[in-house]
Amino acid sequence: MKTVNIRINGESVQVPEGTTILKAAEQVNVKIPVLCYHPDLPPWAACGICVVKLENSPKMVRACATPVSEGMGIITHDPELHEIRRTVIELILSTHPNDCLKCGRNGNCELQKLAADFGIREQPFEQRIREIEPDTSTPSIVFNPEKCVNCGRCANVCQVMQGVWALEFIGRGENVRIAPSADDTLNDSPCIKCGQCSAHCPVGAIFEKDETGKLLAAIRDPEKHVAVQIAPAVRVALGEAFGMEPGEISTGKIYAALRKLGIDAVFDTNFSADLTIMEEGSELVQRLTKGTGAIPQITSCCPAWTDFMEKYYPDMIPNFSTAKSPMMMQGAITKTYYAEKKKIDPANIYSAAIMPCTAKKYEITRCEKMYSSGYQDVDVVLTTRELARLIKAMGIDFASLKDEKADSPIGAYSGAGTIFGVTGGVMEAALRTAHKLITGKELEKVEVNEVRGVEGVRKGEVDIDGKKVKVAIAHGMANVSQILDEVRDAREKGEEPPYHFIEVMACRGGCISGGGQPYGTTDEVRKKRIAGLYKDDVNSAVRCSHENPEISQIYKEFLGEPLGHKSHELLHTGYTP
Ligand code: HC1
Ligand code: SF4
């Protein structure tokens, strides 16, 4: 790789050609302030806070978008630059409400931090706030244009990373603002509720719909038996809100914290991820060996993805697995199997789910099949961020909690269940069980390396008993079209489908970087969370869904067999264009 020699504040440094000034400065531990820049996204150069000087030149450039060149001398900090940056921040503050105490981002807002770092105490510019009502039209996120600082990060992530284009800049000059496309409500826009805009917003303009009050009300209600499930990806991220490293597995502490909050039954979505594999794996085997459904089979546990598919690829609905997501399966069996076993009236069960995802808030009332127990199967979804706030507000010292176990049954999980939270994980878990179902034999080596990795689109072939199963994986919604268009093309030409099985997750890296995870997710953080879930798999006594003893128990005592009558009633769903 070609390198260039530059000076940053007089210090010589060699960096690869093409490196931006911002990245080069990081290499000598110089932090240039930013607001519109986010490492996940191409530089936008909208805010101007990262402006730096070039030696022997009157020119100032934006560090986020300017590549270094041989011999360049850069000054990143001096009193003049400080004043310029301070003025930029003051101008942004003049269009931003001063209600930090009541803002959801109070304490972790990037604008608030800049104002604090620059010691801003007064407001020299006239206050001009946009008076536009918050958009509360989706069940997942709230968009408050008053707080928007026009940094463009939300529109950028929605368009570039997710390929959805639900958000855009509209208007001209000083009236320019971010809005849902065609200035409609978010719910009427193409929005798929993934929440990536909320995870990338530096301020409190886009925020998960806070439903902590609903869970607290249920806990206070003496009639209610409150059952909570936690998603795979929560266990490697929640700890970050309490000073733990990304990827540190805190499952036992989460169970303990939930009991301290007053939860009656603590379950794990990983259990029902195993259940999903029994159903979805059997469905795949039937499609492959008996030709009883469309090929390729496509995973359907990600609700942002199912929303996208219904909107943009309705012709592929027959390819979706009809297996409900693990979260919805867990809700259904909590209010049926568990209720029967514990002799609790399901009307009195309050079923909550802690998820890394904002689209999960939408999924729980998505269609009538989400009420398969006769009640709403999952009553409320809180994101990882909401649970972190609740734990803090309740004065629980999370990091020092002793590990506890989940309740049983419907709490135990296999390593296959835990890797659902990683891109390629659902595929790998399904292949572990499909191998057993097709060959009658266990895999000698359970790790299916062909489907692991972080590239946005991955394709491979897995050998099951001499049959080559062609697979494809896409994550980050903008990467999906490439694969689906191949499937469509083959179908239109009357050719064999290019794949047998496709896994799609809306968020980059899978649920580990869902839109409801702690702020500050970057590729470095993603890698750590992914490693955490693979470690959880390796540490699991049981690695395959079909070997989870509580899975055998529920089929024996209640469900009968995968794809049987009861499973169809409780564990499967449909999709509408
Ligand atoms: Fe996911 Fe899933 S893996 S969708 O990414 O299938 O949210 O973590 O809970 O339901 O299990 C999310 C994660 C999660 C479901 C499972
Ligand atoms: Fe775009 Fe996702 Fe935000 Fe909707 S939730 S506006 S699809 S980033």
UniProtKB/TrEMBL annotation:
Record domain 4Fe-4S ferredoxin-type: where: 139-170, 182-211
Family annotation (InterPro entries): 2Fe-2S_ferredoxin-like_sf, 2Fe-2S_ferredoxin-type, 4Fe4S_Fe-S-bd, 4Fe4S_Fe_S_CS, Cytosolic_Fe-S_CAF, Fe_hydrogenase, Fe_hydrogenase_lsu_C, Fe_hydrogenase_ssu
NCBIfam families reported in the protein's UniProt record: FeFe_hydrog_A, FeFe_hydrog_A6
Family: Belongs to the complex I 75 kDa subunit family.
Gene Ontology molecular function, alphabetical: 2 iron, 2 sulfur cluster binding; 4 iron, 4 sulfur cluster binding; ferredoxin hydrogenase activity; iron ion binding
SMART domains tied to this protein: Fe_hyd_SSU, NADH-G_4Fe-4S_3
Keywords for the protein's UniProt record, in alphabetical order: 2Fe-2S, 4Fe-4S, Iron, Iron-sulfur, Membrane, Metal-binding, NAD, Repeat, Translocase
Residue ranges constituting the 4Fe-4S His(Cys)3-ligated-type domain according to the UniProt record: 80-119
One CC-aspect GO term: membrane
One Pfam family cited in the UniProt record for this chain: Fe_hyd_lg_C
Keyword flag Hydrolase: no
Occurrences of domain 2Fe-2S ferredoxin-type (ranges): 2-80
Location of the protein in the cell: Membrane
Protein name per Swiss-Prot or TrEMBL: NAD(P)-dependent iron-only hydrogenase catalytic subunit
Subcellular location, principal: membrane
Kinase in keyword set: no
CDD domains with a match to the protein in the record: fer2
Cofactor(s) demanded: [4Fe-4S] cluster; [2Fe-2S] cluster
